[in-house]
Amino acid sequence: GENVEQHPSTLSVQEGDSAVIKCTYSDSASNYFPWYKQELGKRPQLIIDIRSNVGEKKDQRIAVTLNKTAKHFSLHITETQPEDSAVYFCAASVGRSQGNLIFGKGTKLSVKP
Amino acid sequence: EAQVTQNPRYLITVTGKKLTVTCSQNMNHEYMSWYRQDPGLGLRQIYYSMNVEVTDKGDVPEGYKVSRKEKRNFPLILESPSPNQTSLYFCASSLDGGMYEQYFGPGTRLTVT
């Protein structure tokens, strides 16, 4: 079946450094790639998403890049802050018309003050 | 306020005692989904529904049932719970699960003894 691989599973950075999380997907028809952030004890929430007709998207300190040829996409967080500490999930749509998402296993990001 | 609600939020039960976790959304979303979250395994999809009376299996459907008789509600039924179903459960809804943001409920912490 279709799957999404996410790396690394844990990531520790110093405050102010950049963090990069990478995902690869298997379904060549995937065309929607969201990223969710889950703070401790809370529900996942969308932080940024990208569609297949775009190679890069930025929103303040976060950015997502997409390489459809290689079937991978990445989340970049610059100038990390302690409040960025959370679990981040990538996801990819399944096929063009199936209307579903597959999630990666998550990356636990720790930002040390 | 646009939201996804789940009840109960916490539940401790015994093996074999049937239970239902309710999920309701007030955003008129077509798509709804159930996930379970276990340490190191990320968000695994149990069942999803792209419209009323349409449901499909996710990655881990064994031991669960769902129904979608009306657009706003998507209950998760455990006919005979077992200890391996102890987990954190999230319901989510979206205009289209594979193309738009999924809004998650607050989660239900289930313990089966």
Q: Give, in order, the helices and strands of chain B.
A: EEEEEEEEEEE
Query: Could you say which overall geometry of chain B the principal axes of the C-alpha atoms support?
Result: globular
Mean pLDDT of chain A: 94
Portion in strands of chain A: over 45%
Count of separate DSSP helical elements of chain A: 0
Q: Count of helices of chain B?
A: 0
- Please estimate the helix content of chain B: under 10%
Secondary structure class of chain B reads mainly beta
Oligomer: heterodimer
User: H/E order of the elements of chain A?
Assistant: EEEEEEEEEEE
Sheet with most strands of chain A: 6 strands, mixed
Biggest contact: A-B, 24 and 24 residues
pLDDT below 50 for ≥5 consecutive residues: which ranges of chain B? none
The SS-based structural class of chain A is mainly beta
List keywords for this structure.
heterodimer, A: 113 residues, mainly beta, 6-stranded mixed beta sheet, 0% helix, 56% strand, B: 113 residues, 7-stranded mixed beta sheet, 4-stranded antiparallel beta sheet, 11 strands
What does this structure look like?
The complex is a heterodimer of chains A (113) and B (113). With 113 residues, chain A is mostly beta strands. In chain A, 0% of the residues lie in helices and 56% in strands. In chain A, strands 2, 4, 5, 9, 10 and 11 form a 6-stranded mixed β-sheet that branches. Chain B has 113 residues and is mostly beta strands. In chain B, the strands form 2 sheets. In chain B, strands 2, 4, 5, 6, 9, 10 and 11 form a 7-stranded mixed β-sheet that branches. In chain B, strands 1-3-8-7 form a 4-stranded antiparallel β-sheet, with no helix packed on it. The A-B interface holds A 1, 6, 9, 31-32, 34, 43-46, 49, 89, 93-95, 98-106 and B 31, 33, 35, 40-45, 48, 50, 56, 59, 90, 96-99, 101-102, 104-107.
